[in-house]
Amino acid sequence: MAVKVRIPTPLRKLTEGKDEVTAEGTTVREVIDDLEKRYPGIKERICEEDGSIRKFVNLYVNDEDIRFKLNLDTELKEGDELSIIPAIAGGMC
Amino acid sequence: MDFTEEQIERYSRHIILPEVGGRGQRKLLDARVLVVGAGGLGSPALMYLAAAGVGTVGIADGDRVDLSNLQRQIIHSTPRVGTPKALSAKKTIEELNPDVEVITYNERLTRENIREVIRGFHIVLDGSDNFPTRFLVNDAAFFEHRPLVSGSMFRFEGQLSVFKPHEGSPCYRCLYPEPPPPGLVPSCQEAGVLGALAGVIGVLQAVETIKEILRIGEGLSGRLLIFDALRMDFRKVRVRKDPGCRLCGKEPSIKELVTYEESCELQRSSCET
Lengths: 93, 273
Fold this sequence. Notes:
The structure holds two protein chains of two kinds. Chain A is α+β, with helices and mostly antiparallel strands.
C-alpha cells in the first residue's frame, strides 16, 4: 500500500528536494525501510543504529506521534500520511 | 486601573477589545516576559510585546549585532552593527514604548545563572539558535514553573509550541527527548533561513505570549504548529505529555540542569563574537 510521506526541510537533499514522496508499507517500519530503498541514507537520519527512532525526530501518522501509538509497528491505512518532524534549533541565527 | 491619558490613547485598540479591555491591558502592563535571544525570532516578538505594553521585558543575548543579522533581525539597524544585541534591542524598545522597562542580560544563559534570571519573569519566550540553550531553557522553565513559548526555524520551515508542564501539559523534552549529537544538524548559519519566516514565527510567539498573559483563547499547549513557507502551509500535530519524560515524567531522572555540547564550532564562534 502506498502512503504519502512528508519530508522535512533538513532531509530534502536526500529526496531530490521533494517535500512529499510516496512509499510502500502497512506499518511505519515497512514504510521507512521502503523509503531507504528509494532514497538511500534517509533511514540513518531517522533511526539509530539499533533501528529505534532518534530522540530528536518524531514520526506522526496524520497528527498523532507514533511513540504514543504502537511506535514502529503503528499501522497505516489507505490515505494516511506519515510526517517526519525533526527538532530544529534556529531562532537567533 | 490608573491609566494615564497617554496610555488610554496608546492602548485604545486593545482596550476596546472585549477580550482585553482595561483589565487585560493592566495585566499586560504588569506582566514580565523574558525573551531568550534578540535575534530572528526575538526581534519581532520583542517589538510586538513592547508595542502591546508588556510592562517588563527581559532580553538575554550575549551576542553583538552583525551586518548579516539585519536580513531578519528587525529590532536592530545598520548603525548598531557591533553593539551588543541586548542593548540595541533595548534602545529600539525604549523609542517604541516608554512604558516598557527593559532588563538586559548581556551574556549567555548558563546552568549557573538561568534559574535566577527566569525566576524574575512570568513567562519565557525562547528564540535561541542552538539546542543546548533550548534544552537548558526548557529545563529551567520547568524547574521554575514558568510557561515556555518556544519557536524555531530552519530555511523555510518554522515550529511553534507552548509548554506548561507545571500545569500538566507536555514539556519540550516530551516532544524531543534529547538534542541531536553535535554536528549532525546544520545551523541556520550553514543552511540559511528566509528572513521573513522569522517574522511569522516570532510574531506568533508574541501572540501566544499575550494570550497566555491575558488567559484568553486556546493556547498551543499540547500542539505543535509547523509552518512551511514554500507551501504556505500551517499544520498542527498533537504533542502528548510523555509519562516516561526524563524531566517531567513519572520517574524523572533529570533533577538538575544539564549542559549539552554546542552543535558545531561555527555556531559557537557566532555566539561569542
